[in-house]
Design a protein that fits this description.
single chain; Na+/H+ antiporter like fold; PIN-like protein; mainly alpha
Length: 418
């Protein structure tokens, strides 16, 4: 197939995303004001708690089976590699540009997490339905494309709400602590003097406590072996409990098991376990109304998220300035380095027999490296209360550049595989 034909095939899904995004941008303008700040927050809540979980659960239950999971086992690994490679490149960018502490997590998130949700669910079916698609029969291609996009969406949601959320939350907390520490240090140095406080603390630490008798008071007591053992076990259990509490606070299990993650687990269970699948999926399934209702709700997720992206781009036009070197670095990672490395990863996986020979599957794996930054990061910035304005600016440039870069990478991927 000629390169120009592949270019126009690749251009159609990108234009589709661009048009819906433009509608969201228009609805957010002051003249229309249907997607203002409050409206976006309400719609974002619906997407997070209702639309996306319904979409993920229904899609996985319908398209993923035990046999397909065996075939697609490399996809979660491939998505993990996009996060790992993107994070490593972002870490280098942070060190080179001297990014402030409170924005370091945002840079890592934008560089590592791609928008594998609504983008793949739009791009893959459109490519399959094009007359000059290089991937064969449109119905078979669309069926596979829905399975690939659904699994990508579920895996990406798990990674974002565990890894990326943890990184961004930790970065924001460290940024706040640095500000508070610098403020408190200046106050202490001005009011009291560092040496005086250190002296007071040192003296206070040397004084014996009235609540605890000294070792001389126990010189006549004999410690039994079992008492000593019980004491050590108590100390060990207290230490384990303390570390588990610290781990739970850091990871925030509530976010790890976000609605999308729970929906992915439920969808996979229904799809993989044959008896449950027969009860829920199919024209003669007794509980098919539950699946149909979830599918109906899930259909609202893609247009809603794409409209939110467009509305947030308007916020980016009015947002504060972000370092040009930082924006250029993120754009370089997501639009040049990662897509190029994706070719090498998939080619190597095919060479070692990890992905099979189906070209549409390989195309999807490559595409996962070329997608712009995930919109879920915007939701995270709202939750942690840091980086929201900067993220809008980054998203504006990311989607503006991705309009061209994504089309070119899609064309190149199809040309390499066909």
């Amino acid at each position: 197939m000629e390169f120009l034909d592949l270019f126009f095939t690749a251009l159609m899904p990108v234009l589709k995303v661009l048009l819906v995004t433009a509608v969201g941008l228009f609805l957010a303008t002051e003249r229309v004001n249907l997607l203002g700040e409050n409206a976006r927050q309400q719609l974002n809540g619906l997407v997070f708690y209702v639309f996306f979980p319904a979409l993920i659960g229904a899609s996985l239950a319908d398209t993923i089976t035990l046999e397909s999971m065996v075939t697609l086992w490399f996809m979660p690994v491939n998505i993990l590699l996009t996060f790992v490679i993107g994070s490593a490149l972002a870490w280098i960018l942070v060190k080179v540009t001297g990014t402030p502490q409170h924005l370091q997590g945002l840079v890592i998130g934008c560089s590592s997490a791609g928008n594998l949700g609504n983008m793949l669910l739009i791009i893959l079916p459109v490519i399959c339905q094009e007359n000059k698609s290089p991937f064969g029969d449109s119905s078979t291609c669309s069926t596979h494309g829905e399975a690939y996009a659904s699994l990508s969406l579920a895996i990406q949601a798990i990674y974002v709400w565990s890894y990326v959320y943890f990184i961004m939350r930790t970065s924001a907390e460290k940024g706040i602590k640095e500000i508070n520490t610098s403020d408190s240090t200046s106050i202490i140095n001005t009011s009291y003097g560092t040496s005086q406080i250190f002296s007071e603390i040192s003296t206070e630490a040397l004084l014996p406590s009235n609540d605890h008798p000294s070792s001389e008071d126990h010189s006549d007591q004999v410690e039994l072996p079992h008492t000593r053992f019980e004491g050590k076990m108590k100390v060990l259990l207290d230490s384990v409990k303390q570390h588990l509490e610290m781990f739970s606070e850091k990871i925030n299990l509530k976010m790890v098991f976000a609605p999308s993650t729970i929906a992915a687990i439920v969808g996979l269970v229904i799809g993989i376990i044959s008896p449950m699948r027969k009860v829920m999926i199919g024209d003669s399934a007794p509980l098919r109304v539950i699946y149909s209702s979830a599918e109906l709700l899930g259909e609202a997720a893609i247009p809603s998220v794409t409209l939110i992206v467009g509305a947030n781009l308007l916020k980016g036009l009015r947002g504060p300035g972000v370092s040009p070197s930082l924006i250029a670095g993120i754009l370089t990672i997501r639009n040049i380095i990662l897509p190029a490395m994706g070719i090498g990863v998939v080619k190597a996986a095919r060479h070692f027999g990890l992905v099979g020979t189906y070209t549409f599957y390989q195309f999807t794996l490559m595409l996962q490296y070329a997608i712009p930054s995930a919109v879920n990061i915007g939701t995270i910035t709202q939750m942690i209360g840091s980086g929201g304005s900067e993220f809008s600016v980054i998203m504006l440039w990311s989607y503006a550049v991705a309009t061209v870069s994504l089309t070119l990478w899609l064309t190149l991927y199809m040309w390499l595989l066909t």
